[in-house]
Write a structure and sequence with these properties.
Blueprint lengths: L2 H11 L6 E6 L3 E6 L7 H5 L6 E5 L2 E5 L4 H11 L7 H9 L4 H13 L3 H17 L2 H6 L4 H5 L2 H15 L1 H12 L4 H10 L8 H6 L5 E3 L3 E3 L7 H20 L2 H43 L5 H16 L4 H13 L3 H23 L3 H15 L4 H11 L1 H20 L10 H4 L8 H23 L7 H13 L9 E4 L4 E4 L7 H4 L5 E7 L3 E3 L4 E6 L5 E6 L4 E8 L9 E3 L6 E2 L4 E5 L1 H6 L3 E8 L8 E3 L4 E2 L4 E5 L1
Antiparallel strand pairs: 1-2, 2-4, 3-4, 5-6, 7-20, 8-9, 8-19, 9-17, 10-16, 11-12, 11-15, 12-13, 13-17, 14-16, 18-20
């Protein structure tokens, strides 16, 4: 099928031109903004020639074609009448998608997701301290739990574990200001005002060791150390107030007057209105959450474990960020984490069963990496790429997730943090819970695998294309004669990161091919091979090269950096240009990427992985430009 015909089939499958608001593309994906998701024939899209996968995210239907091909398909669909838009226009339009509830939940997610690294790290420290803080372990070091608790080292561990939550309102207010368009530093200071040491400590007030300060004889004011909602709404309203003041204050007075009025107005509202009102609301939400989690006979785990991945599909699962952060701030533990882990584990088990049972080489190549991605806590490739596509695996995964959630509730499992699950999440249960956690994960995986293998999946009749593909793989042992073994060098300096752990489901699932990622320490990208530049995007965020030995290499600087439209990037090469290893391809500004709220982690992927028997990352830790990065054989 030629590209023109593929483009026609794409337009037909997404519901026709009348269902399309706009189309854009990045280095690997065609991004279609549609009016009605239900009008998309997703099976038809995924079965099209050259399509490597598709999923719906943030209002966009993203169809993976890969480097080079996506440019050609984009040109064809535009020529056939699809309206175009800039990446920023699409991003803004995506933010408007869904009803008010979905938009509100998305806002919660946008605020809390950037805080996850701090919460995850703090939770891990809590888990490690819990694992060693018993007489059996401490006896190995010649001390006791009582002596350890009185030591200076224990004080240091308290600093590690308590700081993020003691100043949690400051982090939330900072992030809310950032999301809603205000100055994050103003948000940070407002949040710090809410936990100022001059105010009675919230935990002391709760324990009876201190009393609130009463203003005007009836307004109780305390610190908000364990609060979430007050800080969120201070950030939301403060950012909107600041933006409004910028519009009405003359430029000559802006720097002085806007911060002054923002601090004055919002500090009054935070301490005397927003704080007391939303702290009361928060207490009711927390009480309701705990009531649900404490239902007898493991009912909470049964219900939530069975429904969580359905909630993920609807896109409103970020509500759990709010609830989990409240539980951690109030009690230092999170029962939701174990139940969510069970639900995600079940989807991984179902995908693994499909991978093992199918005879389709193409489906195996998708399902095995998706399983690994799910076990590392990223279930989107498993859900959208495999389980929902065939239906029954997803449903049976929900059944197994309910069973696993019930087991988690019966065991009383509760993580010391949130934001990581399954394999990485094990570190949140080192405080005496790890054996029960492992049993729950293994039992859930096994149940989901068996149910799906026996009742959930059966290969459709093998297509002519699949037969031809399988015969070629068998005949040539997966190594066409057009490529030879070589070593691909690192195109930039930095710290290596496993590709499966990057925060992008397409790259993490290895749908584009195997490779490795690098967290850059410099700002220059060089050619990792002797070869030819196949693609040099005008935006400067991605390069596609083909080595003289046949390796096709994609270098993608950052995640979703296509939305920057070239700002912060400088391109030094053009398509069809010959390059030597070490030649400069371009430069980038990590500070500009960070200012845009994006991640500069750079992916280095062998997009023709299927042409090799082995694609093996060989670098660990820090790398310099030109260091050996990937071996292909």
């Amino acid at each position: 099928m030629d590209n023109t015909q593929i483009a026609k089939e794409v337009i037909k499958a997404v519901g026709g031109l009348d269902n399309v608001n706009s189309v854009a593309h990045c280095a690997t994906r065609l991004r279609v903004m549609v009016k009605d998701e239900k009008a998309i024939d997703k099976d038809a899209v995924e079965n099209l020639d050259k399509v490597q996968g598709a999923f719906f995210n943030s209002g966009q239907y993203q169809i993976i074609f890969g480097t080079g091909t996506v440019n050609k398909i984009y040109d064809e669909v535009v020529a056939l009448g699809m309206p175009t838009a800039s990446k920023e226009d699409q991003k803004a339009e995506a933010a408007k998608q869904g009803n008010w509830f979905k938009r509100a939940i998305r806002s919660f997610g946008d605020v809390f997701v950037p805080l996850l690294p701090a919460i995850v790290a703090t939770g891990l420290f809590m888990g490690v301290r819990g694992a060693i803080n018993n007489d059996t372990i401490l006896g190995i070091f010649g001390t006791t739990q009582k002596a350890f608790s009185a030591s200076n080292f224990y004080t240091y561990t308290v600093v590690l574990t308590d700081t993020a939550f003691a100043f949690f309102p400051a982090l939330i207010s900072w992030s809310a200001f950032r999301v809603f368009g205000g100055n994050p530093v103003i948000g940070l200071v407002l949040g710090l005002m809410m936990v100022n040491s001059s105010l009675p400590n919230a935990w002391d007030v709760a324990s009876g060791a201190a009393k609130p300060i009463y203003y005007f004889g009836f307004i109780p004011v305390v610190g908000y150390q364990n609060s979430v909602l007050p800080a969120f709404f201070v950030g939301l309203l403060g950012a909107k107030l600041e933006k409004k003041l910028h519009k009405i204050i003359p430029d000559v007075l802006d720097l002085l007057v806007v911060p002054f009025l923002t601090f004055l107005i919002m500090s009054i509202l935070a301490l005397f209105v927003i704080g007391p009102v939303f702290h009361s609301v928060e207490n009711y939400v927390l009480a309701g959450t705990k009531f649900l989690l404490n239902l007898p006979f493991g009912l909470s785990g049964l219900v939530l474990g069975g429904l969580h991945q359905v909630i993920v599909v609807t896109g409103v699962h970020h509500i759990f960020n709010l609830l989990e952060s409240q539980l951690i701030a109030a009690d230092g533990k999170d029962p939701f984490n174990a139940i969510i882990t069970a639900a995600m584990t079940a989807q991984a088990g179902a995908t693994l069963a499909v991978a093992v049972k199918t005879k389709s080489a193409k489906l195996k190549a998708l399902a095995f990496p998706a399983t690994l991605s799910a076990l590392l806590g990223i279930t989107e490739p498993a859900i959208f790429g495999v389980n929902l596509r065939f239906g029954k695996p997803f449903v049976l995964g929900l059944v197994a997730g309910a069973a696993g959630g019930w087991l988690a509730s019966i065991f009383g499992l509760a993580g010391t943090g949130f934001g990581i699950t399954i394999i990485p999440g094990t570190l949140l249960y080192l405080n005496g819970q790890v054996l029960k956690y492992v049993i729950m994960v293994l039992a859930t995986t096994a149940l989901s695998f068996v149910l799906t293998y026996m009742f959930g999946y059966q290969d459709e009749e093998t297509t002519v294309e699949d037969k031809k593909e399988t015969e070629e793989l068998v005949e040539e042992a997966g190594v066409p004669a057009t490529v030879t073994a070589e070593t691909i060098a690192s195109p930039l300096a930095g710290e290596t990161v496993a590709l499966t752990s990057v925060n992008d489901p397409v790259f993490a699932s290895e749908a584009m091919g195997k490779g490795i990622a690098v967290k850059p320490s410099g700002n220059t990208v060089v050619s990792p091979v002797d070869g030819t530049v196949q693609i040099a995007f005008e935006t400067g965020h991605a390069y596609g090269l083909k080595s003289d030995n046949g390796a096709e290499v994609l270098i993608h600087i950052g995640i979703d950096t296509v939305s920057m439209d070239g700002k912060g990037f400088t391109q030094k090469v053009k398509a069809d240009q010959k390059v030597k290893k070490g030649d400069v391809l371009g430069t980038f500004d990590s500070a500009a990427i960070a200012a845009a709220g994006l991640d500069d982690t750079t992916m280095v992927i062998v997009t023709n992985t299927a042409d090799y028997s082995e694609v093996i990352p060989v670098a660990e830790g820090k790398v310099a430009e030109g260091d050996n990065l990937i071996n292909v054989k």
